[in-house]
Design a protein that fits this description.
The chain has 69 residues and is an all-alpha fold. Helix content is 71%, strand content 0%.
């Protein structure tokens, strides 16, 4: 598993195990499942960032924009 940080951090076996299990589960998805997962993650990221600046943005608005993109 790759580390994002250059400096050593405190041991975190529970979190490391959870990350490893989630990566294994993602890797086991068929290509269409991976595509849907990535699309959902993009919508979630965009919604989260846009809603910080504009509380009138809804998840549905972002999903509709993603469908039309």
């Amino acid at each position: 598993m790759k580390r994002m940080m250059r400096h050593a951090s405190k041991p975190r076996p529970d979190l490391d195990d959870l990350i490893k299990r989630s990566m294994t589960a993602f890797d086991a998805l068929p290509p269409e499942g991976k595509r849907r997962h990535r699309a959902a993650q993009r919508v979630s990221w965009v919604y989260g960032n846009l809603s910080l600046d504009n509380p009138h943005i809804t998840r549905e608005m972002v999903e509709k924009a993603a469908e039309n993109w």
